[in-house]
Amino acid sequence: MEFVEVDHLWVNYGRLVAVRDLSFVIPEGEVFGFIGPNGAGKSTTIKVLATLLKPARGRTSVGGTNVALNPHAIRKHIGYMPDFFGVYEDLTVEEYLHFFAAAYRIGRNERKTIVGDVLELTDLKHKADASVEALSRGMKQRLGIARVLIHDPKLLLLDEPASGLDPRARIEIRELLKELKNLGKTILISSHILSELAELCTLIGIIEAGRMVAEGSLQDIYSQLDLKRIIHVQITDLTSDLMEKIGKLNGVASVERNVDRLVVRIREQDTSVEDLHDGICSLGARIHMFQPEAMDIETAFMKLTEGKTA
Q1: Tally of helices (H runs) and strands (E runs) in the chain
Q2: In what order do the strands lie in the sheet with 16-27?
């Protein structure tokens, strides 16, 4: 089921066109990674879905409900976390969450249980009595996610949730997002940390100058660009004849000999990593090491974009 639909969206800031004829869909339960340089239109698109901006043209819907026509109904089903958000620094963590629970009109009797559950999920229970002002940036980011979960939204709109965090805090946020994914939340997340998006997201949208330049699964995007998968192989007693035979296996684009290994590039639409392994073994080779490289989202991003902004 297509839970989020963006159809021919245009957004202007005066004469500046920030989003140009943008279209994409996010099925229910999927994690959509929004990638693009600063000024590409990511935050603007997220603000439209969060009911904070009205588009010049186009239609957006969440769960079949038109966002522009039914903003109050939409807000019940979304949790929006901007890239920079304010906190009420004279409150404790628990008081802060109780405040927002009340704002969402959650009954007094339910609030304590819900706040406790959210603190547990975001691993903030030990900070419940701490002043918000005293939290590290990483803890504040976790608190921001806890806040958007208070009313149990179906859709999370997370704009750069790992921005400015140290490596440990980024890993902790990523693990939290994986848990939310496992809980069945539909998530739209923008980030500049491309490798982490590749690990977390089921779908990717690459945007530049307000236009979508590629969309789909990572494998779809790699196939579109005809990117080759690289596998490093060490073979005992490698001969030139064996190397030539490997180069003729189905789906092999090239074979190069480095100092201590072969670098084999394959077209994954024609063969798989596993089939390559079986094919090399069928030639009588004794494999000492077989190491596929992770597909590189940074390479796809650089190939598809030119550094333009809206």
Answers
A1: 11, 14
A2: 16-27, 2-13, 57-62, 65-66
